[in-house]
Specification:
The chain is mainly β. It has two domains: about 5-310, no CATH class; about 330-335 and about 370-565, no CATH class. The chain has helices at about 80-90, 180-185, 400-405; strands at about 5, 15, 20-30, 35-45, 50, 55-60, 65-70, 95-100, 110-120, 125-135, 155-160, 170, 175, 230, 240-250, 255-275, 300-325, 325-340, 370, 375-385, 410-420, 420-425, 440, 465, 485-490, 490-505, 510-520, 555-565. It has a 15-stranded mixed beta sheet that branches. Strands 6-7-8 form a three-stranded mixed beta sheet, covered by helices on one side. A two-stranded antiparallel ribbon has the order 1-11. The longest helix is centred in the N-terminal third of the chain and has 9 residues, at about 80-90. It is globular, with a radius of gyration of 30 Å. The chain starts with a strand and ends with a strand. The model is unreliable at about 195-205, about 210-220 and about 345-350 (pLDDT under 50).
């Protein structure tokens, strides 16, 4: 085997608390001016395990050479293996029993002001604006990676082989197999923590320099535990929103609104990594020797609240109220969203960061377009009550029997257009041993030259592989490549429509027949390209569609009857 990972089975009982207090008032200053004023306070605690079955791994600075491993006092009574305590001490990790169930300090100053106004310039012309702050709790991101999955409660041992030339050994001279691994490991008792020898049976001297800062890397002391952590003094994620709009009702039935809408995300939470490399290593280097705690698993989950985002948009809305049976609603948005919240839980094509702990790069080096950014967005909705039937423009005096056939027809339509969303073309070959890489964009080459369809969305000649790393700890960061989100995928266009027929029997009883079509034109809603290796012949081909209507985007017809009484 080239790697082995297994865990015990246990259960945690996580609780957290939320308190919110707010006050709001509307003040009509003059007949033309109204103010909306409010203030809110929120408290979001971090998770507490009711029996103290959790631990928090806190390296200095998030990835430093010393750390504390906080366990609630009651949880400290759970027996730990001697080898864990020994290796933790060797690694400069202080196992601390603390008087806290949450193992974190909630932010107490979450005050959220809200200010809004409406000013009537003319009877049919109004200006509105507002600003508000909203706090939110840490995201519910599933069970994996939470503090309850730390040793000695729910834990995982991950034992990788160093490379293809050195097989994974469970003991000296004993090659690892799945059957032997499950026999060798005992996960029913956390006090029994085996230590295989995946690299060598003899001590390996640390490389020179600042690597192996946790002590000498001894093969027989590698425990393969992932130690999960959360920023202890985390900040509550917040969003600030502001808008300024002008609305003009220029006829009794028509109104248009134009405005600026923006949001800024601050202290956004991410599931990054710790015990990670913090210097560039040439490909082929044993990365385990260059992390702060080489006796433990690399790149364990570490939750922080240090990401940011910014959204700015112009939004225009036109509304035509019912007249002659017709009503319309249309809006157009021109927007741009930027951010560095690119951890796996936030996007399909930005799974983590290239070099989260590389000085001078970090998560800011991956600041770019949001995965969900769409420059143009159009929505048009309309309803038309056909003017045929009793009491209507045509056939107002026809019989009830004839009205059952020609009257009561309604046509609906809803059209959406969204321009393509961004994604990153990564490097087909590793340029370093430890960090990710974005392909460089070749000057003078059109990104979308060529077929630019589902067979080949992008021009392979527009991308190039950066130079590979040549020295340990080099200060030239070019192996990381260019910026992220270099290109955009296909746009999305969709028309949903329906035809309704109302059969009126009495004033309070009617039957409605509905024939509905989703993706009426059967236009394929192509997904993002799936093959992003620009050195292959099928680069940027698209083989799947978006599941935009629970039928993989294909046209769907639906018939229904509804009785109103």
């Amino acid at each position: 085997m080239n790697g082995f990972s297994a865990s015990n089975i246990s259960a945690t009982d996580d609780h957290r608390w939320y308190i919110g207090v707010f006050g709001q008032d509307d003040w009509k200053v003059t007949p033309k001016l109204t103010l909306n004023l409010g203030l809110r306070w929120d408290l979001f605690t971090s998770y507490a395990e009711t029996r103290s079955f959790q631990a928090n791994f806190n390296p200095a600075g998030g990835n430093g050479a010393s750390a504390t491993y906080d366990i609630p006092n009651q949880g400290c009574n759970t027996t730990r293996a001697n080898i864990f305590n020994t290796v933790a001490a060797l690694s400069n990790i202080n196992v601390a029993c603390v008087d806290s169930l949450t193992l974190g300090n909630a932010q107490m100053d979450n005050f959220s002001p809200r200010v809004g106004f409406a000013y009537k310039l003319r009877p049919m012309l109004v200006v509105r604006g507002g600003f508000g702050t909203a706090y939110g709790a840490l995201g519910n991101l599933g069970y994996g990676g939470t503090l309850g999955t730390n040793y000695p409660f729910v834990y995982t041992q991950t034992i990788p082989a160093p490379d293809s030339n050195h097989p994974l050994l469970l003991a000296p001279g004993q090659a690892a197999t799945m059957e032997q691994a499950f026999t060798y490991f005992n996960f029913s008792n956390p006090s029994v923590l085996q230590s295989p020898t995946p690299y060598t049976t003899t001590p390996v001297a640390c490389p020179s320099g600042s690597s192996c800062v946790g002590g000498q890397y001894i093969g027989s002391d590698y425990v393969g535990l992932s130690l999960y952590g959360r920023q202890p003094n985390y900040q509550t994620p917040l969003v600030q929103t502001e808008n300024l709009t002008v609305e003009d009702q220029f006829t009794p039935h028509d109104a248009i609104q134009a405005g600026y809408v923006a949001t800024q995300g601050r202290h956004l939470d991410i599931l990054g990594a710790t015990n990670a490399n913090s210097e560039i290593l040439p490909a082929g280097t044993n990365t385990q020797l260059y992390i702060p705690y080489p006796y433990f698993a690399r790149n364990s989950t570490y939750e922080t609240t240090n990401a940011n985002s910014s959204y700015n948009s112009m939004q225009v809305t036109y509304q035509h109220q019912m007249r002659y049976g017709l009503s319309l609603l249309g809006n157009y948005t021109l927007s741009r969203c930027m951010g560095d919240q690119h951890a796996p839980q936030n996007g399909q094509f930005n799974a983590g960061y290239r070099a989260q702990w590389l000085p001078g790069f970090g998560i800011k080096g991956d600041y770019g377009l949001c995965d969900t950014d769409a420059t143009h967005l159009v929505h048009i909705a309309g309803t038309y009550n056909l003017p045929f039937g009793r009491g209507l423009r045509f056939g107002s005096s026809i019989s009830r029997a004839a009205d059952l056939i020609v009257g009561g027809w309604v046509i609906n339509g809803f059209y959406t257009f969204q321009s393509g969303q961004p994604f990153t073309v990564t490097c087909p070959n590793a340029t370093s041993a430890d960090f990710g890489c974005s392909a460089n964009v070749v000057a003078g080459q059109g990104l979308y030259s060529g077929p630019h369809n589902f067979t080949q969305w992008l021009n392979p000649a527009a991308f190039a592989l950066p130079a590979a790393a040549t020295a340990i700890g080099q200060t030239d960061y070019s192996p990381l490549g260019g910026g992220i989100q270099q290109v955009r995928g296909p746009s999305f266009a969709n028309l949903d429509s329906s035809i309704l027929k109302n059969f009126t029997f009495t004033e309070s009883t009617r039957l409605q027949f509905r024939a509905e079509a989703f993706n009426t034109t059967n236009t394929p809603p192509f997904a993002q390209p799936g093959q992003l290796n620009f050195t292959t012949t099928n680069f940027s081909n698209i083989s799947v569609t978006k599941n935009s209507n629970q039928n993989n985007g294909a046209r769907t017809l639906q018939l229904a009857l509804k009785l109103f009484y």
